[in-house]
Amino acid sequence: MPELPEVETTRRGIAPYVEGREIREVRVRERRLRTPVPEGLENALVGARIGALGRRAKYLLMPLADDARSLIWHLGMSGSLRIVRLGELPRKHDHIDLVLDDGGVLRYHDPRRFGFVDWLQGGPESDPRLTRLGPEPLSEAFDGARLHRLSRGRRLSVKPFLMDNAVVVGVGNIYASEALFMAGIDPRRAAGRISLERYERLAAAVREVLAAAITQGGTTLRDFVSGTGEPGYFAQRLNVYGRDGQPCQRCGAELRLVTLGQRASVYCAACQH
Questions:
Q1: Which of 39, 72, 162, 241 is most buried (most C-beta within 10 Å)?
Q2: How would residue 103 be classed by pLDDT, with cut points 50, 70 and 90?
Q3: What's the rounded Cα separation, in Å, for the pair 79 and 81?
Q4: Would residue 58 show up in a list of annotated catalytic residues for this protein?
Q5: 263 is catalytic
Q6: pLDDT > 60? residue 229
Q7: What is the pLDDT of residues 193-210, one digit of tens each?
Q8: Catalytic: which of 21, 55, 56, 58?
Q9: DSSP secondary structure, 179-216, as one string
Q10: Within a 10 A sphere around the Cβ of 226, how many other Cβ atoms?
């Protein structure tokens, strides 16, 4: 599933090609996404000019210049957005095209159809999909004190606690695993039994791993123009995620696998406690 760094890199990758461009045509080949493509979207978007792209958690926000409306995109589990040239034939699972005034096409691809595009309802501050979200992990609103305060009395394991979008947005399975390793915290520990000092280390680790992924993504992803649009995960060196049974790169102990919140979690019993 595309996580926050993948969505942010998508935003940065397509922004130079779509911001300020007028939509000349909309082609919808498949309406049956997680949320069906709104009826009349094709006609409503023709003539609209795209404003500055934004992001909230894993949602990509596309305001329409000189229009009160905006679009909200979600990539689901397998979705991607890329730029192709007009006339490039669609592949299987290429569901939506926004044809732009310079001959570029913003193309949405989604084999599993768990993503969607929809109208943003009343702006980010009032859309029900966004109002209950916690702070952005790279913002000043997120810190160890927040994690410590919200965790008091919680018996839930710290890893699913960290992945709760009401606590902080966008810390998915990969980056939660890596941040907990960097902070030396066992993912199985009860969230309510972790000290403020250790939560401060964890918040710093979350920011570090996400910032590194975003920075590296800007130089390692395939070209967004005429690219495959399937960036996958960043080619960074992962310490624990997906490495169960292998030696820890810090101490050499065998990494262990456990299931927490129905998600696979790999950790080092020697380094994380």
A1: 162
A2: very high
A3: 7
A4: yes
A5: yes
A6: no
A7: 999 999 999 999 999 999
A8: 58
A9: HHHHHT--TTSBGGGS-HHHHHHHHHHHHHHHHHHHHH
A10: 12
